[in-house]
Amino acid sequence: MKYIEYVNEQIKNTVKDPENLVLFGQNISTGSCLAGLTKGLSVNPTSKIINSTNSENSLCGFGFGLMLNGVSSVFFMKQLDFLLLGIDHLVNTYNNIRSTITNPKSSFTIMPIIVDGGYQGPQSSLNNFADFCSIARIPGYTISTKAEAKKLISTKLISPGFRIIGVSARLFKEEIINVPIIYENTDSSLIQYSNGVNVTIVCFNLSFPIGWNILQNLKKDNIKSSIFNITALTPINWKEILENVRETKKIIIIDDSKSQNLACENLINFLHDNCDIQKKIILKRKIQNNWLHPVSDEMVIDYQKIKDGLQIA
Amino acid sequence: MESESQKNIVEKILRIRLSQMLINEDYKKNKFKIPIHLAFGHEAIATAVSQIMNKNDKLVLSHRNIAYNLARIGKLKPILDAYYLKPGGLVNGKTGSMNLTNVEKGIIYSSSILGNNFSVSTGIAMGEKIRSQEGITIVLGGDGAIEEGSFHESLLMLKSLELSAIVIIENNEWSMATKISERRHSINLEKFAEVYDIKYVKMSGNNPIQYIEKLNSLKQFSLKEKTPVLIEVMVTTIGEWILTTPEFPDGKLINYHAGPAPTVDLEKNTAKIIDDVSDPIFVLEKQVGSKKIEEITKTVLKELNSEIK
Description:
The structure holds two protein chains of two kinds.
Chain A: H1 3-15, E1 21-25, E2 48-51, H2 56-68, E3 72-77, H3 87-100, E4 107-114, H4 129-135, E5 140-143, H5 146-156, E6 161-168, E7 183-184, E8 190-194, E9 199-204, H6 208-220, E10 225-230, H7 239-248, E11 250-255, H8 264-274, E12 279-284, H9 303-310
Parallel strand pairs in A: 1-2, 1-3, 3-4, 4-6, 5-6, 9-10, 9-11, 11-12
Antiparallel strand pairs in A: 7-8, 8-10
Helix pairs in contact in A: 1-5, 2-3
Chain B: H1 3-28, H2 43-52, E1 58-61, H3 66-73, H4 77-83, E2 107-110, H5 116-130, E3 137-142, H6 149-160, E4 165-171, E5 174-175, E6 178-179, H7 180-183, H8 189-195, E7 199-203, H9 208-225, E8 228-234, E9 241-243, E10 252-254, H10 280-288, H11 290-308
Parallel strand pairs in B: 1-2, 1-3, 3-4, 4-8, 7-8
Antiparallel strand pairs in B: 5-6, 9-10
């Protein structure tokens, strides 16, 4: 099943029954329905689907207003870039609300598509999901696998409080990665899919498919990897990764965000302070001179170089 | 309006004025750690808004929310304690002044960010509709906030979604230290509202009884027709002073925006500060006579001092 088909199916299952739920966003019930993300939604008769105005800032405030008045809602957004217009609400309104309401009864979720497929040019290619979450310590989750889609959408999409759940446009037409979870922390922000003794792989932002490919390639050479995906960005308890790296002593960290400040640096600093690492490979974007032009956003990975770098006999 | 009701309104307005004057005295002595935006001159519209509110109605305020908070609660101490960040204050003293709310009294959101509260109020109004509540959402902004895109966006959303709401713009003709005419082209709110087919009403004169009647009528209209209404109310934020500096030896006008109002003095003044209709207390004097105002002032001031002792 394609990534977008499965994510859409999970959304449909989650929103169909709740009462007094508001789903809103631009073109969510017409045309391509955000490239299939919101296709075929149906809701309880007491709930409402709003094909909204193009007012991203006010739509963010709208969701918080609904939440204040005891009504849960989901704002589906065509591009993460558009959420820049709503940053006032992500920071100021959210801070205002959570400073006084410690146990909210209703939910507000923003679900943007992270346009990371490339060839967008100087605009419309913002992929730095961590930055949005970091500015106000917002719970944020990216969806990379089938297990994450099922878990995060069923437990977070309509759950009291506020969060952002990001999906990757690059993965929409790909077969969704179907691998079972072997460990997850209490809020599903750190998920482990494999346990191996030779190297630890940790994936940030939307880089899990890259990490999974590396794992498969290393496996062919009989190198056994542990792999973790970081779905939420603030705050994270690194204990499980620390324990794993203490065993493997080798780590590959992948972060496909275009930010200057990367979420993975938090982990790197933590590990340096707390364990002995024999080999460390950090895969992040090399920003070229043409990065503001329509170019591929794909990270080029040299598996042989990675394997050689690990120096595993 | 019956004389007993009128007396009640007069007392409420004076209570808001005198409460602010007491806060101002502490403010002048630098007793607060937080910034406070006083609202001398806003008492009539604040009282009128409070008077038309029922149990299900929601009020969404801006940073200059003091008059409305005082009007809704009818007491000084919970607000004063909130300003002193005491746990016994409103919202357990956790918000400061600019975000002060009072959910029990219908004030469910206040924002210090210009224009931020318009869209939040739109969501609150949608919540009323979804839950089939009978309440109306009332949102306050200033003439500075209407320059923000969210004002346009929120009116469009309120109208498009057929939501009952009263959007009140307090026009004091200033944004911080700049007059409208110094900053921008004038905005004709009546024409602005017409573009969205939204009913527009301009109010001025600080007559609380007229304000209450008008607001009640507009509230019923909005609820029945499921449409927002836009009200522009002319106010003077009282508390200006003349600052003399080497650059301005003859003095420069400093309009009141925030902080203490040095020219407002509880010892020297009566409750009234200005001798024209820009001061709601002047309007009350014309309605009930200065002797009555003095009498109620003494009683209310005594009660307030006893309350905060």
